[in-house]
Design goal:
heterodimer; A: 257 residues; 5 strands; globular; B: 289 residues; Rossmann fold; 7-stranded mixed beta sheet; 12 helices; 36% helix; 20% strand
């Protein structure tokens, strides 16, 4: 784990402890994915509305705390602001609001929506012939129980949106419900170019994110809920939406190292 | 009315390159000229109403003005959450134009009947709800509202009325007035039946093409009368009832599925929305008042 990813995980833990909010295991599974994205994509923290920027949409909006901490550590705003997470009149809700936070391109939360917006944004860039810009979205495997995800993927491939990269956070959320045992084959069958990566290997993720080809790209990021804290990884269902006590926080920090 | 949609869009599309058509595999042939002229701004996305709306939101997020078009119940009911969140909550403006109003697809049965659309969409914050009754109304209102950054819903019908009247967004039209007791309020194509029904009855008649924002002032003028909302859908009555201190009743759809086939006039007759049944109801209201 890189020092930055460790710092972000500690941010997430501390903010969850202080505020009592957060989907920590789901946040931990995407820390490397988000860091890799913001190290690769074209963006300017000092000018979030830069008209040459790539667009990133967090379709699994419940990982908002991870995104806030990543945005803060990449210079969009001070991490201290995120300590108002989930509080009345805070800008930092448990799902992201594009009107309140710089760097948030779409307000998400209900699963299966962000990817459809991403498809429309990718089409828009095609129409405008802004070929240097790309659209990225992170969807969850649990989220991919939603039919709207697959509808959007079908439309994206039919429209030949080769400027769209979908990162599939395969953190096994789906395992206790509607199972998706072979996501790679499924996305391939829908006409996507699919690759896989260890979702906690920053270098591998960055290599995959940099790739472009003539198809909709899907990266299956194999991740673990609660990655970095074994206690949480082993019992992630119990931690789905739970904040740590002071003692648990100390133990998790020790596990993070 | 879809032809008017085509003609108006062909015209405004000439000067506004931000207009993008997003269709759910209906009216595609009708728009072949637009497609030929502007191939990069016409998409028959397919029969996938959820994505139709989300994709429209994405286009809007990058500065385009989407016109999302498909069959009424499928876009308004199936995609209600996409309209609520992807468009309204995100503030991504779009125009949604449905076809198949009320019983326009009578022969297709209850799966294709559409009557909740305006009632449910008017509940979403900052939406505009328009039920044009004539081609002229659609032309005027589409031109005036398509580019205001809001989510605007246009309920198109294949059976427009041919009543000529001044049209301005948000303004009701008083077609008959001066009567002390009963006011008939209506909207959309059913106006033709209402006018025939009330041609010599002692009532006021107010007509709405804009359901939201509803013209409160027009209703308030008649608050001293008994208001009868005659409508072949839901939404107008609920909007009228927002006005304080009025006495209003609804005459329209029954609380059961209209599971018959046939034609629009067959269904209207069956549920009492033909001119003679409307006339009988209004006469009773006059007698009771």
């Amino acid at each position: 784990m890189t020092p930055l990813c460790k710092t972000i995980r500690k941010d997430i833990l501390q903010i969850a402890k202080e505020t009592g909010h957060g989907h920590i295991p789901s946040c931990f599974s995407v820390v490397e994915v988000l860091c890799a994205l913001y190290e690769v994509i074209r963006h300017d923290p000092k000018n979030p509305a830069w008209d040459k920027r790539d667009i990133f949409i967090l379709s699994k909006g419940h990982a908002s705390l991870a995104l806030y901490c990543v945005l803060a550590r990449f210079g969009y705003f001070d991490i201290a602001k995120v300590y108002s997470f989930g509080q009345f009149e805070s800008s930092f809700g448990c799902h992201p609001d594009r009107f309140k936070i710089p760097g948030i391109e779409a307000s998400t939360g209900s699963l299966g929506h962000g990817i459809g917006i991403a498809v429309g944004a990718a089409l828009a860039l095609k129409i405008k012939k802004e070929n240097e810009r790309r659209i990225y979205t992170v969807i969850g495997d649990g989220e991919s129980n939603e039919g709207s995800v697959w509808e959007a993927v079908m439309v994206a491939t039919n429209l030949k949106l080769d400027n769209l990269t979908v990162i599939y956070d395969n953190n096994m959320s789906h395992a206790r419900g509607l199972q998706i045992p072979n996501p790679k084959d499924r996305f391939k069958a829908f006409g996507c170019h699919v690759s896989e990566a260890n979702g906690h290997d920053l270098g591998a993720l960055k290599r995959e994110i940099r790739k472009k080809d003539r198809h909709v790209r899907v990266i299956i990021a194999h991740t673990k809920k609660g990655y970095g804290c074994q206690t949480m990884t082993k019992d992630h269902y119990a931690w789905h939406r739970r904040a740590p006590s002071d003692q648990e926080f100390e133990e998790f920090c020790k596990e993070l190292g | 009315m879809r032809k008017q949609f085509r003609d108006t869009v062909l015209d405004i599309g000439k000067s506004d390159a931000r207009i993008v058509m997003v269709f759910g595999d209906v009216s595609v042939y009708l728009f072949k000229d637009f497609q030929a002229l502007y191939p990069s701004r016409f998409y028959n996305v397919g029969i996938c109403e959820n994505t139709l709306v989300s994709l429209g939101a994405g286009l809007s997020s990058q500065g385009f003005v989407p016109f999302i078009h498909t069959i009424n119940p499928f876009i308004t009911e199936r995609s209600y959450e996409q309209i609520k969140l992807d468009l309204c909550y995100n503030g991504f403006g779009a125009n949604i134009l449905s076809c198949g109003a009320s019983f326009d697809y009578a022969w297709d049965g209850a799966t294709h009947h559409a009557y909740t659309d305006m009632a449910i969409l008017r509940l979403l914050p900052e939406t505009e709800i328009i039920q044009p009754g004539s081609r002229h109304e659609l032309d005027v209102l589409l031109r005036s509202q398509y580019n205001n950054g809001k989510v605007t819903y246009f309920r198109l019908s294949d059976h427009p009325h041919e009543v000529d009247m001044p049209v301005k967004f948000g303004k009701a039209v008083v077609l008959k007035e001066g009567h002390p007791k009963v006011t008939v309020v209506t909207a959309g194509p059913i106006l033709a039946n209402v006018l025939e029904a009330c041609r010599d009855l002692d009532v006021n008649i107010i007509y709405f093409h804009t359901i939201k924002p509803v013209d409160h002032a027009a209703i308030s003028r008649f608050r001293h009368t008994k208001i009868v909302v005659v409508h072949d859908a839901f939404g107008l009555f609920e909007a009228v009832c927002e006005v304080p201190d009025i006495s209003a009743s609804y005459y329209g759809l029954p609380d059961k599925f209209c599971s018959w086939y046939g034609t629009l006039s067959d269904i209207r007759k069956k549920i009492g929305l033909d001119a003679s049944a409307i006339r009988e109801h209004v006469r009773r209201k006059i007698q009771e008042s």
